[in-house]
Design goal:
10 helices; alpha/beta; nine-stranded mixed sheet; Spore Coat Polysaccharide Biosynthesis Protein SpsA, Chain A
Length: 314
């Protein structure tokens, strides 16, 4: 298999037929040996039935139906695990990203000799809040993790087989896809693109906060280290205050009120407690993430042509 095009479906009913036509046309400009892998991420509309009809007319379309909505990032990882192409083009199906970018990405991959060509918006789409929150999301993420992911990176990217195989080696259960793409390494090249605004984003403030928490806890120990240093600073502060009280009592014979020593003791014990919790948290967080070992998605059906196959795991 020369080429795989992978896309997820969630509230994609208005776009799926046009996406299929345009993706097929773009693939055929490069090769006749291709497949289109669609992952239905528990879409509440009729995306599944529309996609099933497509598989009945084109055997090159593979439809993976997940048992429920697991989230965009996990659905993409599942789609990549089923892709068989020597090159894999990952893209959203809502037509905000053009399937025709495949041609440009392929040309740049040949010219640069790289393993990944990914899209970056020249200017972030959406209203003020979407642009502002998106920019701060990536700035905080990069500061806390030490990474350098572009603020306006998009889903669309063309990847070689060896890069996809390396990406799938990651076994995180809480998937933050952009971080995994970055830490997998290899030679990656940017392509400036213009993303369209065809639909309202499903990433509201609550989902953005939840995604940010997953992103930081998956790729950074900075919050735990900050807890450690805060506890250590409180401990030193309370210790210094105790010395100050003792000096006033021994040298200057000043009266020490009971509440003063009580508060100093509370700060001392509180600082020590936070210090110890921070140390334990660094270790326990790693253990906690690894021991759950839940599957990232569960597949209900795989549709390929007129055949239907049942499965229970990716």
């Amino acid at each position: 298999m020369k080429l795989s095009i992978v896309a997820t479906l969630y509230q994609s009913a208005p776009y799926i037929e046009e996406f299929y036509r345009r993706a097929s046309a773009a693939a055929q400009r490069l090769t006749d040996d291709y497949e289109i892998v669609l992952v239905n991420d528990g879409s509440p509309d009729d995306s599944l039935s529309r996609a099933v009809r497509i598989t009945e007319t084109d055997s090159r379309v593979v439809l993976i139906d997940l048992s429920r909505n697991f989230g965009h990032h996990k659905a993409m990882m599942t789609g990549l695990s089923y892709a068989q192409g020597e090159r894999v083009f990952l893209i959203d199906s809502d037509l905000e990203e053009e399937p025709e970018w495949l041609i440009e990405f392929s040309n740049q991959m040949e010219n640069d000799g790289c393993d990944v060509v990914y899209g970056v918006q020249e200017k972030r789409k959406g209203g003020f809040f979407e642009r502002w929150s998106g920019a701060w999301f990536w700035r905080l993420f990069n500061v806390l993790t030490g990474m350098a992911i572009p603020e306006n990176v998009v889903t669309a990217r063309l990847m070689t087989r060896r890069y996809v195989d390396a990406l799938l080696l990651h076994c995180e259960r809480e998937v933050f896809f952009a971080g995994l793409l970055q830490i997998t390494g290899f030679n990656q090249s940017q392509k400036i693109v213009k993303k369209h605004n065809t639909s309202h984003t499903s990433y509201n403030l609550r989902r953005k906060i939840a995604l940010f928490i997953v992103a930081i806890t998956s790729f950074s120990e900075t919050p735990l280290v900050m807890i450690f240093y805060i506890g250590f600073l409180l401990f030193l502060s309370s210790l210094g205050y105790l010395f100050f009280i003792l000096i006033r009592w021994v040298i200057y014979s000043q009266q020490i009120l009971g509440w003063t020593s009580l508060i100093a003791s509370i700060w001392l014990l509180g600082g020590l407690t936070i210090l110890f919790i921070g140390v334990l948290g660094i270790y326990l967080s790693r253990i906690f993430l690894e021991t759950k070992a839940r599957p990232i998605t569960i597949v209900r059906h795989i549709y390929r042509g007129k055949r239907t196959m049942e499965d229970t795991s990716p």
